[in-house]
Amino acid sequence: MKGMNELVRQAQVMQKKMAKLQEDLQERTVEGTAGGGMVVAVVSGSNELKSLTIDKTAVDPNDVEMLQDLVLSAVNDGIKKAKAMMEAEMGQITGGIKVPGLF
């Protein structure tokens, strides 16, 4: 029974660490870029788009599709980097064990 109590205690400690990390990740950001930096998307660790910067040279009224593609690429790059950051941080807490439903 003592072993079970220790296991429950460790799970509670891990749960508290993960909750704190999730709070911290909301404040941390990564940058996704496209077009050699013409479009920059800043994404939080909680996958929230914080800002989007578009260089004026990327704006061509005759090629709106290119700008749309650049924006999509930059945002997707930012989301991918934010997810990788979250997975790396969670992996440190869980010891690399994939816990279903966490990420």
UniProtKB/TrEMBL annotation:
In terms of InterPro entries, this protein maps to:
YbaB-like_sf, YbaB/EbfC
Pfam families linked to this entry = YbaB_DNA_bd (PF02575)
Would you name any one GO CC term? cytosol
Keyword Phosphoprotein listed? The answer is no
Q: Which UniProt keywords apply?
A: Coiled coil, Cytoplasm, DNA-binding
Highest taxon, organism lineage: Bacteria
Q: Where in the cell is it found?
A: Cytoplasm, Nucleoid
Coiled-coil ranges from the UniProt annotation = 4-31
Supply one GO molecular-function term. DNA binding
Q: Does the keyword Ribonucleoprotein apply?
A: no
Q: Which PANTHER family match?
A: NUCLEOID-ASSOCIATED PROTEIN YBAB
Record note on quaternary structure: Homodimer.
Q: What does this protein do?
A: Binds to DNA and alters its conformation. May be involved in regulation of gene expression, nucleoid organization and DNA protection.
Q: Which family does it belong to?
A: Belongs to the YbaB/EbfC family.
Question: Per its record, how is this protein called by name?
Answer: Nucleoid-associated protein C3Y92_11670
Q: What is the lineage of its organism?
A: Bacteria, Pseudomonadati, Thermodesulfobacteriota, Desulfovibrionia, Desulfovibrionales
